[in-house]
Structures are given as structure tokens and as C-alpha cells.
Amino acid sequence: MDGEANGTLHPSCGASEPPYSEELLRSLDLPGRFLFATLTLMTLIAILVFIEEAVYIYRKIPSSKRSIIIWINAAAPVISTTSCIGMWIPRSTMFTDFTAGIFFAIVIHKFLMMMIKECGGQKLLLRRFEKSHFTISTGPCCCCCLCLPRVPITRQTLFWLKVGTFQFAVFRPVLVFLSIVLWSNGNYLLDNLSPKEPALWINIFMGVLTLTALWAVGIVFRKVRTLLTCKNIIPKFALYQFIVVLNQLQTVIIRMLATQRIIPCAPPLSSTARASYIAQQLLIMEMFLITVISRVIYRRKYHDLEPLECTAEEARDKKQTSKIIPNGAVVEDGLPKFCNKPSCSAVAGSSAQESVYSCTTNSHCPCQNNF
């Protein structure tokens, strides 16, 4: 940095490639080594916390929600791990960023599916909001377009919202693969955003896909947040938003500062490499905190909250003219339905968790409304 002030540049300041890990480690002083060790330890702790949480989820959560919640909880540890690898091996930064980006694209779709699952599934969600509408004038795309019409909540509308997040999970890996192919041919550089270069257009297209996916999640969250308040959906959404901002926006801002030379080079790191280095260190600390907070928010028993949904379904069933015949048939609106009592007794003899989940998925069975 002294060389820059005197008008002479260190050779590494004009280097197009980050240094090798051996060169970086040799340049570290004692505080730098202590920082490396501390951040690496934080990453290992985040991984252990996630593994412990995944075991808890696998044992305590119903199978229909298990994989989705594990995927969402894995977002922060995965980003922390890729950032730690990029910190130790600077030349792997592009690949670690791509890996974290692909994983988080899948997590965005999983978060939308989790909100639908928490409402009891697609069918129950459509029944709860059959006469309601989605407000599409929400962030991050249309928060200022208050004149947009409200869209009825139908099966087709819900399908297109799922497509909005699924397209990001599909096209993000495709664009990453294209970027790697162009990079291997020398046509793709992260810090070269000239209109004649493909990096600019790939990043713009990826930004549009990201905003579309976030918009779909925001539309659904705005509708179900009141219903799912008892399931801590607002803190969960806040953590999800923090990961979006920190992993996407924060990294972009830091790299823009490096492009404008606001972040100076520090041999053996060039300005761009140092920006990535700073972003990775910040992400490790931030994702560590989010991992710990996620463990507190997601570590709960689902069956403690499921009776609220069963009670709502029960109240709805009581408004209908239903008659129970001694042989186990239920007559609703003149149409007979049969309740298999042996299956109900089997459910009653199982764990409380499975009983509550069965009550939610098959709430029309009158003998299950007692659980």
C-alpha cells in the first residue's frame, strides 16, 4: 500500500489471478494467523451445530417436512464452509462462490415449499384461502407498483409461484456451468464487466432470475405470515432474508468497491482478490451467527403447534351438516364417507407426533379429531 501512495505499484497489485495459498500463508503475520485460526474454528463449530440439528430434525420432525427443513438449515453452514475454503485457497474463490450460489438457489425454492407444507400442504392452503387473493405488489420487484391487481389464490396461481422459485434452482446451475466453460477459454473474468464481455450479461440475467424467485417467496409469505405466526415463520423469513442480503448484496457491494479501487491492494492480494478475501471473512462470522440462531428457532416440536390447525379444521367441520352412522359411515352433504376405525386406533397407539400429523392430513376422519 505504501507503493501505491508513492506512485509505484507492487507486481501483485496488477495481477489478474489471486495468489497461491502458500504465498498467502507466508505473508500472514501473527494477528493474521490468529484470525485464520479463529474463522476456521467458527466454520467447524457451525458444521457441528448443523450436524447435531440435522440429527434432531431427522428424529423428531415428520418425514414430509424433514428434508425441506434440513436443506434450509444447511444454507448458512454451506456458505460458511465455501467461504472458509475460498479464504484458505484464494484461487478457488470463483468455484466456491458458484457452489454457494447454486445451493442457495435450491434453498429459496425449499423455503417456499416449507411455507406451503406448514399450512398443511397445497390442498389445505387452497381451502384456507379459497376466497382470498395474493397481493403481488410486494418486494423486491413490485413493492412500489400499488396499482397492480390482486390475484385470486388458485391451483394455477400457486403453480406459477412455484415455477418462479424452481426456475432459479434450475437455471442458476446452467449459468454457472456456462460461466466455467467461458472461463476455461479465457472469456469470463469476474472483475471484467465490460458490455462486450459475457460476464456482465450473465450477471444481469442471473440477477433477474434471483429477483423473480425472491418475489415469489415474498408474495406467499405476505399471505401466510398471519396464519403461521404460531410457527415462527417471521423469524425464519428474517433469517432467510439476512442470508440473501449478506451472501448476495454484501458481496456485490464489496467487489464494486474493489473495482473502483476504493479497496486498495495489499500484497500479495490485488484489489479484487482482497475484496473477495474480506467478503469471505465477513460471511464466515455472519453465517456462524445465523447457524446458531437457526438452531434456536427451528429446534422445536412440530406436534406442539399442529393442534391449532386441527382445531381450525374441526371448527370448519362443525359448521357442515354431518351425521355419524353407527357402522362408521359419515354423511356429508348427502354423500357417505367411511372412517376406518382400525387405522384410527393404530394411529392412537403410535407416537404423539405421528398422531398429530395424521390428524392434520386426514382431518375428515371424526375419530381422529380427538387427538
UniProtKB/TrEMBL annotation:
Keywords: Membrane, Transmembrane, Transmembrane helix. One of its GO terms (cellular component) is membrane. The keyword Protease does not apply. It is a multi-pass membrane protein. InterPro entries: Ostalpha/TMEM184C. Coiled coil: none annotated. It is found in: Membrane. The chain crosses the membrane at residues 34-56, 68-89, 95-116, 159-180, 200-221, 233-258, 278-298. PANTHER family: ORGANIC SOLUTE TRANSPORTER-RELATED (PTHR23423). This is Organic solute transporter subunit alpha-like. It comes from Lepidothrix coronata (blue-crowned manakin).
